[in-house]
Amino acid sequence: MNLGERLKACREKSGYTQTYITEKLEIHRGSLSSYESGRRKPDYDTLSKLADIYKVSVDYLLGRSTNERLTAEQDKQATEMGKKIEELISKLSEEEQKKAWEQLEMYVQYQQNKEPK
Q1: Fewer C-beta neighbours within 10 Å, C or N terminus of the chain?
Q2: PANTHER family this protein is in (predicted)?
Q3: Which residues form the domain of 60?
Q4: Exposed e or buried b for every residue in 71-92, given b needs 16+ CB within 10 A?
Q5: Could you say which residues of the chain have pLDDT below 70?
Q6: Which of 80, 76, 104 is nearest to 3 (CA)?
Q7: What letter would DSSP give residue 92?
């Protein structure tokens, strides 16, 4: 399941409408629709707010964990790391950002599929 699918599944599981979420986040409905369809990715602050609303961890939304909940310390570390990554990528052009996210996703997938030593 990708990020968009998890966002939609969490929203539906929580019983929220897109309108409710967009009002809570003060974003356009089209933005949320784009996140859920996978056409766009939310910035880290928006992703963090969505995780709070759905009462799941950011790692769960990103597919880095199958566990919906992390300890507070784990979630704090993930939040700090996410902000650092976003800060670095934000220095790039829009096209370079897209490529950087794709490379990061491929690297994470590679690491997850590696055989343990």
Answers
A1: C
A2: HTH-TYPE TRANSCRIPTIONAL REGULATOR XRE, TRACRIPTIONAL REGULATORY PROTEIN-RELATED-RELATED
A3: 3-91
A4: eeeebeebbeebeeeeeebeee
A5: 67-75, 115-117
A6: 104
A7: S
